[in-house]
Each structure stands twice: as structure tokens, then as C-alpha cells.
Amino acid sequence: MSTEVRVPTLGESVTEATVATWFKKPGDSVAVDEMLCELETDKVTVEVPSPAAGTLGDIVAAEGETVGVDALLATISEGGEASTEKAAPAKEEVKSSEATDDKISGQIEVKVPSLGESVTEATVGSWFKKVGDSVAADEVIAELETDKVSVEVPAPQAGVIASILVGEGETVGAGGTLALLSGDAAGARTVAADDSADATPPAASSAGKDVEHAPSAKKLMAEKGLTPDQVQGTGRDGRIMKEDVQNAKAPAAAASAASIVTAAPAPAATPRAPVPADDAAREERVKMTRLRQTIARRLKEAQNTAAMLTTYNEVDMSAVMALRKQYKDEFEKKHGVRLGFMSFFTKACVHALREVPEVNAEIDGTDVVYKNFVHMGVAAGTPTGLVVPVIRDADQMSFAAIEKAISEKGKRARDGKLSMAEMQGGTFTISNGGVYGSLMSSPILNPPQSGILGMHKIQDRPVVVNGEIVIRPMMYLALSYDHRIVDGKGAVTFLVRVKEALEDPQRLLMDL
């Protein structure tokens, strides 16, 4: 009996991929979920796991070939010794095979749940149970961290944790096996003795091993005049991928830059200065979560890519505060949600984006993509870091609908329940640093968006109105924008329109 290995789903709008590397050759034994090959798309690198244990048969799509979604890649002949083999150190080959037979028989695999579009791996953040613990069906037993969200792993059925195959801090691919669940405590105790060997797979060593770089990367290196030594590979075993070449500087450009400016190494590449022993003893070193690493990377990318500039203004919040005070009780009674400031700012931004559409656009190569809709990102701070849930079609929503959406997504963000889809596709973002007491700041763009509005603390300040000094509740506004697509005139006009709409909310009703 043979099993087909096919191209998995590649993500929204991605219809084909290039076979980058085969990790196995025909005749090799493979275990369930063992990585067979790696595919490259324009956006991500996708690993293809084995759907069954057995022996790899014919490879239909060779390295460098382009394949579509669900295309046949290879076949696997099931049966034989391969069906009971898992990757293990050579010195424990027999023991591992026997232990694997023990575990598979009558036990349930705890698999990595769906991680979302384009996410191919996750890091085990925490195990809430240990080997030998009893669990109920659907009880959360572990938490995974991806680049964007945390994912809880429930027990597929009631039983006992027989073994944990992936420890905290280790990375596991989509669909991988995290643990084995036994329906009987005795079975768990039998397997527990071998956990230390099974739960820690041998570290892959690339020493002395030839690394085959991705075909698309080789082609691009040739076009840019680069050698592998000049590119930092981020793929498996240091393999160079297409995006690595795209991020590398051509020799001429690098030499030109070096001749103009002799700069110190980037902070990220600079080794940490020596720390006195008494200080080091009082320090605590904690590995950054994948979410925090992604936040850091994306914010730095925004600074490196966009021509980012910020313009400021201030708004008198008297009218909005009076309107809110007058109607907040009736609003909450009718709509079941409190009337906050975010719906006013969302409406004001939607109004301004109609007049200055480039703030709602993005750059794609040499094209400008204008959006005839507004998917509003609302930045939210959570215990694990900053996330930006998206309110889709905010331009079509009422005040009540906006408030309900913001309230619901804010709660899901704080609870770590946001899905990948809920954080994708934003066209403009609002960030409210005022809730933390910030008086003024310059927000950083959320790529590929071209604009972000920063709200700040409302503070009573003396201002001049009709020739008299009066005390008014004032807020500083900051619009950071990509100067490559948005001119200064457009940015200032946008911010003035937001100011006008907030100081005279009736303008929103009159569409002025």
C-alpha cells in the first residue's frame, strides 16, 4: 500500500511553490510527520511532513521544479520496519524503536492545532501538565507561541500524559506531535522511564555537512553578483533562502556605503559589554517570546523600509466629551456597550481618509495600491506584547458597531484568543498611548500601511479662545506616515480634518 505526498495549502492568494530541498531520497525510511522536503513561495517557506511511516518511493517533483497546490510530490510505501522507526540516536536505535511501538499502541497523539495562515511552526511556551498527570477531555495541557498569537493545546480525550515529546522552548512544526496520551495510568508509568531519551531529540549538526541552498536563492545571488559567503542564511542548517538574498546588500552597494560612512556595528550585532560579577549575579536572563521577537523585527523593518515622518496637532476634546456625557447612558442602555472615545476617532479617521486616500494606501513595488475600504487596526497592549486586531469595513459601521467590535477584540487580545485572521489586512492603524498616560509620542508604522494615528492623554491646558485664555481638555495627536507615498500637505490635511471632526462632531453627520 502506498501513500501520496502532496503540496499542502500555501496560504491566501498563493497558488504555486518551488521545491527547494529534499531531506530524503528514494528508499529512505521515514517516520510519521518527519520532514520530507521544503517548498518556497513568494511569501513563506513551507515544510512538508510525511503523512505516514514507511519507505520513500518515487520523487515526482525534483528540486527546483514549480508545483501547484495539491500537486503530487512523492509516494511512500507503507509497512516494514520503517513504520515503527522514529529518528533517534544510533546508540539507542533498538530501544527507541521498541519504545515507539509501546507508545503508539493504544495511545493517542496530541497534535499541534491549526496555527493560522502562513504559520508553519511554533515554540512550546508552557506545559501545564507533566508525565503521569491525569487530564480531562478538552483540558488545556500546553500553550504554544507563534510569531503573532499564543495557541492553547487541549487534550483530545481524557487520560494520562504518557510522554512529552517536545519540551518547553523547543520548536515544533504545524501538525507535529507534542505528546502521547494514554487511557490508563499503568501504561503511562511504563513509558515514563524512557521519556528522557524520547522527549529530547538529538540536535541536528551541520558541521562538515554540505548545505544545498534554495534554487531561487542561487538564481538571485547570480543576478546580484553575490556569493554564499556574503549572505546570511536563515533556512534549515544555514540554508540560504530567496528572502535572505533580497535582504543582502550587493558588493558594490556595500562598498559604496562603506566609503561614505564608517559606522559602528548595529546594536543587534554588537556583543554585550562585560558585566561585573556582582551585577551579573543579580541579573535575570529571559529568552524573548516569538511574539516579542516579531514585534522587534517588524518595527525595525518599518524604520529601515519606510521614509517615516510624523506631524503633530492638538484637539480640543470638549465637544466629544460633552456629547459622550449627554448620551452615554442611553447609548449603553440601547446598544449594550459603553460609548468610548475610540468610535469618535475611528469615524473621524474614516472621514479624513476619504479626502486623503493615499494615507489609506500602500506601496507594492513601483505601484501604489489605493484601498476603497477601511480596515481599521486598533493597537492593543497585552501581557505578552503589542497586537493590532483589525476592525474590517469600519467605514461601513455605526458608532455602536465600532464600539462593540473594539470591546470584543480588545478582550480577546488580552485573553490571548485572537486568531491570525483577526490581525491581518489592516489599512490604517490607531494607537492610544493616552491610556497609559503618554502626553506625546511618535508612533511607528505598521507595514505595509502608510499611516498610523497616535492618540494621547487628555489634559486640561490653558488655550486662547476668542481672545480669552480658558482651560480646555486638550489632546496631542500624532500622525506618522510614509513620506514615499504621502506628501506633507496630505498628512497635515488629514490631521486637520481629524481635528475638525472631533472639535465639531456634527461635521461627521453633515459629511463636511
UniProtKB/TrEMBL annotation:
Record's subunit section: Forms a 24-polypeptide structural core with octahedral symmetry. Part of the 2-oxoglutarate dehydrogenase (OGDH) complex composed of E1 (2-oxoglutarate dehydrogenase), E2 (dihydrolipoamide succinyltransferase) and E3 (dihydrolipoamide dehydrogenase); the complex contains multiple copies of the three enzymatic components (E1, E2 and E3).
Coiled coil: none
Region (Disordered): 80-102, 193-214
GO terms under biological process: L-lysine catabolic process to acetyl-CoA via saccharopine; tricarboxylic acid cycle
EC nos: 2.3.1.61
SUPFAM superfamilies: CoA-dependent acyltransferases, Peripheral subunit-binding domain of 2-oxo acid dehydrogenase complex, Single hybrid motif
Family membership noted in the UniProt record: Belongs to the 2-oxoacid dehydrogenase family.
UniProt function note: E2 component of the 2-oxoglutarate dehydrogenase (OGDH) complex which catalyzes the second step in the conversion of 2-oxoglutarate to succinyl-CoA and CO(2).
Domain Lipoyl-binding: 2-77, 107-182
Protein name per its UniProtKB record: Dihydrolipoyllysine-residue succinyltransferase component of 2-oxoglutarate dehydrogenase complex
Biased composition (Basic and acidic residues): 88-102
Record field: compositional bias (Low complexity): 198-207
Keyword Acyltransferase (UniProt): yes
Natural source organism: Rubricella aquisinus
Lineage: Bacteria, Pseudomonadati, Pseudomonadota, Alphaproteobacteria, Rhodobacterales
Cofactor section: (R)-lipoate
Positions of the Peripheral subunit-binding (PSBD) domain: 212-249
Keywords: Acyltransferase, Lipoyl, Transferase, Tricarboxylic acid cycle
GO cellular component assignments: cytosol; oxoglutarate dehydrogenase complex
Reaction it catalyzes: N(6)-[(R)-dihydrolipoyl]-L-lysyl-[protein] + succinyl-CoA = N(6)-[(R)-S(8)-succinyldihydrolipoyl]-L-lysyl-[protein] + CoA
Gene Ontology MF terms in the entry: dihydrolipoyllysine-residue succinyltransferase activity
Pathway entry: Amino-acid degradation; L-lysine degradation via saccharopine pathway; glutaryl-CoA from L-lysine: step 6/6
Protein origin, superkingdom: Bacteria
